[in-house]
Design brief:
Layout (H helix, E strand, L loop, with lengths): L1 E5 L8 H7 L6 E5 L4 H12 L4 E4 L4 E3 L5 H9 L3 E10 L6 E2 L6 E5 L5 E5 L13 E2 L8 E4 H6 L13 H11 L3 E13 L13 E7 L5 E3 L10 E3 L16 E3 L5 E3 L6 E6 L8 E4 L10 E2 L5 E3 L4 E6 L4 E5 L10 E4 L3 H8 L4
Parallel strand pairs: 1-2, 5-11
Antiparallel strand pairs: 3-10, 4-11, 5-6, 7-8, 9-11, 12-15, 12-23, 13-14, 15-16, 16-17, 17-18, 19-20, 20-21, 21-22
Protein name: Polypeptide N-acetylgalactosaminyltransferase
Subcellular location: Golgi apparatus membrane
Family: Belongs to the glycosyltransferase 2 family. GalNAc-T subfamily.
Length: 352
């Protein structure tokens, strides 16, 4: 077994961890010289592993009784099988343990590559619910694989910076290379599903509060549903990071749209504008750009190519709306707070 940690400033991951792990001599702690992220850290652990089978588990898991033999049994029968336990739910608030709802469901994804679980049609279900079943894609964090087969597949792509896509890469490769992906109902592992991601992701996305230069007010969303207007409100101030569930925290990334909230699991509502003079509202994200494509210009204006207009504001009415672009208007100038400048630059590269 191997545990991998970046050299973080958190004291309990230093000497206290080393002392605690002396109780478990079979466990090795591998440390990276810099923060590498989940995928490259997993690869580090996999490269140091010596056993015939590699098992990946998130740190925030609790393995249930007799969880491992059912996984090893399937690999023993077919070394090209990647096998996943059923992932039960550990409550984020009180650590209560609940079984996964709907065992007869397999992994899939929507057009925005969000992981989904869909029911297996009744005619395809076996008579014995404890029998393993094929799944197109895995959930990602918990699986076992023959070590040599893992490297024959090429392992993970080392360019993956954050979690959320690695399960598709492995799943696609195993099916295209003659392997199998299976879920194993007799293997149960509990997993804490956090309400938010408690760390920053360097370089991959940009979190921002958008503040108006003229009024000093911030854009805010009161209701995270389609049709809700974007409003101006007093900017939220806190000693630490504003919670990603707050309506003033927005996400800019590779999709070239502006979304509300947590960058890993953003609510799928985006800034949308129909035409010149229309209000800026939320609408279900469609990923097709169009009304949801935005550019942040060097003069601090948020430009909407489809309507050839810019986001304007009325502090007295707290409204946010589209208007003819005016470089001199402070009500059309916006500052991004708590943002990654390099990501913001990539967001607008070649479009200013």
């Amino acid at each position: 077994m191997a545990l991998s940690f970046a050299n973080l400033s958190t004291e309990h991951l230093k000497v206290p961890l080393e002392e605690y792990m002396k109780r478990m001599p079979k466990v090795r702690i591998l440390r990276t010289k810099k923060r590498e992220g989940l995928i490259r850290t997993r690869l580090l652990g996999a490269s140091a592993a010596k056993g015939e089978v590699i098992t990946f588990l998130d740190s925030h898991c609790e393995a249930n009784v007799n969880w491992l033999p059912p996984l090893l049994d399937r690999i023993a029968q077919n070394r090209k099988s990647i096998v996943c336990p059923m992932i039960d739910v550990i409550d984020h608030d009180n650590f209560g343990y609940d079984t996964q709802a709907g065992d007869a469901m397999r992994g899939a994804f929507d057009w925005e590559m969000y992981y989904k679980r869909i029911p297996i049609p009744a005619e395809m279900q076996g008579e014995d619910p404890s029998q393993p079943f094929e799944s197109p894609v895995m959930a990602g964090g918990l699986f076992a694989v023959d070590r040599k087969w893992f490297w024959e597949l090429g392992g993970y792509d080392t360019g993956l910076e954050i979690w959320g896509g690695e399960q598709y890469e492995i799943s696609f490769k195993v099916w295209m290379c003659g392997g199998r992906m299976e879920d194993i109902p007799c293997s149960r592992v509990g997993h804490i599903y956090r309400k938010y991601v408690p760390y920053k992701v360097p370089g991959g996305i940009s979190l921002a509060k958008i503040q108006n230069v003229g009024s000093g007010l911030c854009m805010e969303i009161k209701h995270f549903v389609s049709g809700s207007p974007i409003r101006l409100e007093n900017c939220v101030k806190s000693r630490g990071e504003v919670g990603w569930s707050h309506g003033q925290v927005l996400t800019l990334g590779w999709r070239e749209d502006i979304r509300v909230g947590d960058p890993m699991h953003t609510r799928k509502v985006c800034f949308d504008a129909v035409s010149h003079n229309s209000p800026v509202t939320l609408y279900d994200c469609h990923g097709m750009k169009g009304n949801q494509l935005w550019r942040y210009r060097k003069d601090k204006r948020l430009y909407h190519p489809v309507s050839n207009s810019c986001i304007d504001s009325s502090p007295s009415e707290r409204r946010v709306f589209m208007n003819t672009c005016d470089p001199a208007s402070l009500s059309q100038q916006w500052l991004f707070e708590r943002t990654n400048a390099s990501v913001l630059e990539r967001f607008n590269q070649g479009h200013n």
